[in-house]
Amino acid sequence: MSRSTSHNPGHFDVIILGAGAAGLMCAATAGRRGRRVLLLDHAERIGKKILISGGGRANFTNLHCRAENFLSENPHFAKSALAAFTPSDMIALVEKHRIPYHEKTLGQLFCDRSAQDLVQLLARECAEAGVEIRTGTRILAVSKPDRFRVDTESAAGPASFTADSLIIATGGLSIPKMGATALGYEIATQFGLDLVPCRPALVPFVFNPQDTERWCDLSGLSAEVIASAAPSPRRGNGNGNSRRNLQPSFREKLLITHRGLSGPAILQISSYWRPGEEIILDLAPARELTATLLQPNARRDLGAALAALRTLLPARLAERWLELHPPAAWTNPALARFEDSLHTWRLNPAGTEGYAKAEVTAGGVSTAELDAKTMQSRKLPGLFLIGEVVDVTGWLGGYNFQWAWSSATQAGNAV
């Protein structure tokens, strides 16, 4: 379809709010289809959050991405978008731009050099598609008298633009120092769309005072664990079923910090955790550390127990564990209870580090408001919402980027 021939320079086929991963991909997709696209962002440069992702190398997708890797009130909603634009499609785009990449672990793909390569890829795609990008532009108001109208202010002064379609790609509340705001949620609410309450996700935990005293002097120590959340059985998932049946476990690294716990295993389960609930850590995945103590003629004392623990945990962590959780006796039943404690360390965090340290925002615009095949509002034709602003939250490891690409492509192909 040919590009719009409107003589009104302030009118576009599509206005996209937010020049992050989703907004840039959507703009390029719509522009390639001949749409006249305006992309607006309040930041002074595009892709700011992309640049700090993945330790500066952008974990841009995951080879194993599927709907089961996402949290949402509708666990099936992401299926359509993920099937329409897959990790293989994103890899093909990265290879088209000759960006070297590698698999780090668990299907996670990173740029070899820098996340800047990914931002440049998106910028080139937008340029080739004829997208007009305006950064340093603050959104003052959004309305729809007939067409969508966006009133803005920038260094050049106030300006208003209109469009037949408006796409919200403003992201979530995470990392406010990078410019995160509630704008997308406010616009959605303005137009009558329901929200799922937002919360920090992929975020470190803060210890309660007792555990702070016990563990925080070990800051910097890490260990491989299996981590899971232990939600209250009284709280359901919205379908009359307990969330307990939906809780995955993650076998990855745990990191003790000066305030609590972090590391991939902790960030993963934080998305499932709610205040007041416990987390459960297995400090000896697939190991039975007391097996040597139970052998005939084996030495059974603190020294033997510590030697066994040190085969798995850092020495100082092993010593602290044994100091706080010594076997009540050296009988077989007591050693069995000691073994069990290693596999079921139950903690009740005081909270999380909040949006300042959260990688993503869980919750957002309810998927019940959107068409899964187009990301268009069911209530207001022409209004689309994509990426993190929607109630679809991925695991750690490239899943949230893939949701950005996939949801953006759905909307870009529909406008």
The largest β sheet comes out as: 7 strands, mixed
* Relevant CATH superfamily of the largest domain: FAD/NAD(P)-binding domain
Low-confidence stretches: 234-245
User: How many DSSP H or I helices?
Assistant: 12
Q: Quote the CATH topology of the largest domain.
A: FAD/NAD(P)-binding domain
Structural class: alpha+beta
Estimate percent helicity.
25-40%
Count of the separate structural domains: 2
Question: What is the number of E strands?
Answer: 21
Distance between termini?
A: 12 Å
What is the overall shape?
Answer: elongated
Task: Walk me through this protein's architecture.
- The chain has helices at 21-32, 48-52, 79-84, 87-96, 116-128, 183-190, 209-215, 264-270, 302-310, 315-324, 332-343, 399-412; strands at 11-17, 37-40, 59-62, 70-71, 101-103, 108-111, 132-134, 138-143, 148-154, 157-168, 195-201, 205-206, 222-230, 250-256, 260-262, 278-282, 345-347, 351-352, 360-365, 383-385, 393-394.
- It folds into two domains: 11-199 and 361-412, FAD/NAD(P)-binding domain (3-Layer(bba) Sandwich); 205-352, Translation factors (Elongation Factor Tu (Ef-tu), domain 3, Beta Barrel), CATH 2.40.30.
- Strand 14 (250-256) and strand 15 (260-262) form a beta hairpin.
- It is elongated, with a radius of gyration of 25 Å.
- The strands form five sheets. Strands 1, 2, 7, 8, 9, 10 and 20 form a seven-stranded mixed β-sheet that branches. A seven-stranded antiparallel β-sheet has the order 17-16-13-14-15-12-18.
- It is of the alpha+beta class and 415 residues long.
- The termini are close together.
- The longest helix is centred in the last third of the chain and has 14 residues, at 399-412.
- It contains twelve helices and 21 strands.
